[in-house]
Every structure is written in structure tokens, then in C-alpha cells.
User: Fold Inositol-pentakisphosphate 2-kinase from Penicillium malachiteum.
Amino acid sequence: MTNPSLLELPPGVQLVYLAEGGANVIYRFVSAPVISTPIGRDRDLKSVSPIAVDVPPRFRGKLLRLRKETAADIPYKEINRNFNTIVRPLFKADELVDQTLTSLPNGLLKRCNEQLRAAEISGQRPKKRHGGYLCLHEPYGLLITDMTTFNEPGAILAELKPKWLTQSPSAPTTARRCRTCALREMKNQDLRLLGMKEQRSFCPLDLVSECFDRIFHATSFIKGCNDPARLARILHRNPTLQRLRTQQVSCNQVGLLGPPATSQRTSLDMTLRDCTMFIRIPRDEKSPVEIRLGDLDLKTGAGGKSTYWRKLEVTLIEDGWYNGTNSEGPSDCGLQDATTLDPTFQYII
Ligand SMILES: O=P(O)(O)O[C@@H]1[C@@H](OP(=O)(O)O)[C@H](OP(=O)(O)O)[C@H](O)[C@H](OP(=O)(O)O)[C@H]1OP(=O)(O)O
Ligand SMILES: Nc1ncnc2c1ncn2[C@@H]1O[C@H](COP(=O)(O)OP(=O)(O)OP(=O)(O)O)[C@@H](O)[C@H]1O
Assistant:
């Protein structure tokens, strides 16, 4: 039986590739025929429908998120149910990228996949995403809040993953690196050995620091933002960031405290440590800034993931990544800075 409250995408809907991660591809709706996307980074894939129709009002201000084929293979219906029952209650409505299920017209996913393949050949798809395609047995898409700034001249979208805003509960008390910096340094050693470029990014503890200079230091790493001082003012004591940290403090079954390898328990706690923060900053400093958290799909510890998380924690501890004994050169980690500069400073864990 069809669900009368379920949104349906009109058959001639025209989509333009916006971006993708490991598990989902994001599309914009357009109402006029396009040859290629107007701007930007990994955004040059051609439109996926030959027939243009007007975007119905209920799809305005929304993007379409389509699921890729992955080992986890969790249907959007389940992702959406988990989001509504487990994640949504932890935040205020205006702090979240909203999501609603929508059914998809026949043939849409196939057409999208053809476009993704064509974009690989023409070099328009990010190399690291090649070979990943939409899941053809997924009947739904997710309509999500559009945080892009295409319709707002002069506005910018800053995007960041806040990651672990508190130290891992099983990190050594002698640690000089937070979980995120310890893992990054470990991954960077592998990259160096392969002769590849190291990854540089901010320390999450800096993002939630009381010290403006530390936040400013962090924001200088954030993609898409040409005014790190303004972004630092926006993030200083920001309620959404503070709430995310508070929720991470409560949902602290991570590290060696995480679910055992045999557990099927889904892991909200790790989900809260891997979401994305979107910050839409208007040109005019007096207009309101919109900040929302997205990519809060409930992870699962099944399929070997919880074993991986535990093993990773053991490696970070035993191979000295938390203590920094294995690292090359000085670290920028806020934990080291906070403990060395101010011995009375305590992060809430
Ligand atoms: O291992 P981390 O902390 O680097 O986080 C992974 C992310 O890497 P990033 O921090 O963005 O460089 C990683 O992001 P990318 O795919 O590299 O963009 C995933 O989000 C991964 O989660 P999952 O395996 O897809 O459920 C993330 O893994 P888990 O959070 O599930 O461990
Ligand atoms: N609501 C949004 N507004 C604007 N851009 C978005 C939005 N949601 C996602 N994006 C863009 O699409 C990219 C991929 O989206 P998303 O994070 O949903 O993919 P994913 O596959 O779940 O990512 P991951 O690899 O982290 O699992 C984001 O990094 C972002 O650039």
C-alpha cells in the first residue's frame, strides 16, 4: 500500500550533482535545462535528466541525498527511523540538517549512475570516489536542508567535521594528543611512508576552547572560509557546538569502553564524533548565521566496525600516538597546549 504522506519526486525532476562522501551522493534540484554545474569543487557533473520541470515548492530549499551501495547496506527507511527516534531528540530542530524520506521515480538511480560513470571518464568525479555507485535497490531518497549559498550572493558556506570534542575515556592520563590529533599523526606517518602529502587540520579541542586565539587557530584550517577571524567569533561559545560536546560527554561508550566486538549495538556515540557542521555565513555581518549538523546517520558496530574501533584505540595507546612518543616534530594539539600552558585546565570528559 502506498503511504499518502510520503513525498514523491516528480518523474521529470532535474538534478545536478553537488558533492559526495563515502556513502551518499548529494544533488541539487534545478528548474531550467543545464549543461554543467555552475561552480566549484567536485561539482562539474552534468544534469541527470533530459527533461526539465519546475521544482515544486515543497522541494525548494532542499537537496536530494541518494544512497550508495556500501558493505553496511542500511536502507534509508532505517536510517531515517533511527535519525527521528535516536538523534533528533538530542538537538534543537534548527541545529540539525532536517531529513525527510521521498520516493524516487523509476529509472532515476540508473540515470544517476550512468552520469557518475561518465564523470569518471571525463575526469569530473573525485578520484577517490571512483567505483562507488548508487544502490539500485534503495526505493527512497532523503530530502535534506540545503545549506549551499547558490542563491545568496556574497554568502559563504563553511563546512567542518568537529570530530572528538572530548578526549577518549581510555586514553592514557599522560596523553599529549587528543583522539583526533593522535589518529591524524598515525595516519600521517603512513602517508609519509607512501611518499604522499600529510593531512593538516585543526585540533577539535581548540574549537571548543574558551580561548579565542585557539579557536582562531583552528578556523584557519577550515575549508570554504576566507575570514577565519569572523568564523572564530561565530564559533566562540556557540550553543550548537557546545551541545554537540555535551552529547559526546554523555554518549561516551567509545575507545576501550565501546561495544564489544560481538555486539550488534548501533553506535550513537561514534556517530556524534563523525558528523558535519555546516555554517552558512551571510555577507552582511548583522544578518543571522545558520549553523546545522548533518551526516548524523546512525553508525553500526556490526560488520567488524566495533572490532576496528577497539583495535584502533589499542594501537593509539600502545604505539604511543596519544603520548606523542611516535610523532615527528611538535604537535599543535590543544590538549598538549592546555595541559602545558595551564595545569589547572580540565576538559570535561
Ligand atoms: O576514522 P576517522 O576518525 O578518521 O573517521 C572516518 C572518516 O574520516 P575523516 O575523519 O573524515 O578523515 C570517514 O570520512 P571520509 O569517508 O574519509 O570522508 C568516514 O566518515 C568514516 O566513517 P564510516 O566508516 O564511513 O562510517 C570515519 O570513521 P569512523 O568515525 O566510523 O571511525
Ligand atoms: N545539507 C547540505 N547542504 C550543503 N551541502 C551538503 C549538505 N549535505 C551534504 N553536503 C555536501 O555533500 C558532501 C557529502 O555529503 P554526506 O556527508 O551526506 O556524504 P557521506 O557519504 O555521508 O559522507 P561520509 O564520507 O562522511 O560518510 C558533504 O561533505 C557536503 O559537501
In short: The chain has ten helices and eleven strands. Residues 179-193 form the longest helix (15 residues).
